[in-house]
């Protein structure tokens, strides 16, 4: 058993450790007047900030050539299965493309649809060299289409000042590129006017 002095020293040390914010005189004052209620001080947990995953910038994507198609992959036959998938996607989107389907309903669906895999033809253009280009859309950007032709040539065709036509199951739709300068992801949320000014 401890002696009285050792016990007193132990109690003082224990109280000082248990009540770090109080001075020694205050602790002694409490001991002589009333029972001691020990206080508990919980350590504040520091919240770890979540690091946001940053994607690549446009410059980094260009430098890494993320959107470039290798020359050996630039073959029309490679992308024919993609076109077949696109046709099935449009049929499902338009509920079968039945003969009695209303043209404006199909047109509205096509305006918001993903066009990767569609076969398009440039029917009108301010630049005559673009007229007649036909091929599968491989990539759609805000201002251009990248099209692979049957001659295995990758063409970059601007949307501005060009009119494109696409045909599926006998339904022909025309796309006025000047009114179509949007990314595919933005187009799905855009409201297109049924009637508007057409300029080429």
Structure, described:
The chain has 200 residues and is an alpha+beta fold. The chain contains six helices and six strands; from the N terminus they run H-H-H-H-H-E-E-E-E-E-E-H. It has helices at 4-18, 24-33, 58-63, 80-93, 103-112, 184-187, and strands spanning 119-125, 134-140, 144-149, 154-158, 162-168, 171-176. A hairpin with an 8-residue loop joins strand 1 (119-125) and strand 2 (134-140). The mean pLDDT is 80.
What would the keywords be for this entry?
200 residues; Ribonuclease P protein subunit p29; 6 strands; rod-shaped; 19% strand; phosphoprotein; 30% helix; alpha+beta; Rof/RNase_P-like; single chain
Q: Which descriptor suits the 3D outline?
A: rod-shaped
The low-confidence parts are none
Note the main sheet: 6 strands, antiparallel
Please compute the radius of gyration using only Cα atoms: 36 Å
Number of strands: 6
Roughly how much helix do the residues carry, as a percent range?
Answer: 25-40%
What sequence of helices (H) and strands (E) makes up the elements? HHHHHEEEEEEH
Mean pLDDT: 80
Task: Identify the strand order in the major beta sheet.
Answer: 4-3-2-1-5-6
The class by helix and strand makeup works out as alpha+beta
Quote the distance from N terminus to C terminus: 103 Å
Number of helical stretches of at least 4 residues: 6
Beta-strand share of residues:
15-25%
Protein name: Ribonuclease P protein subunit p29
GO molecular function, one term: ribonuclease P RNA binding
GO cellular component, one term: ribonuclease MRP complex
Keywords: Nucleus, Phosphoprotein, tRNA processing
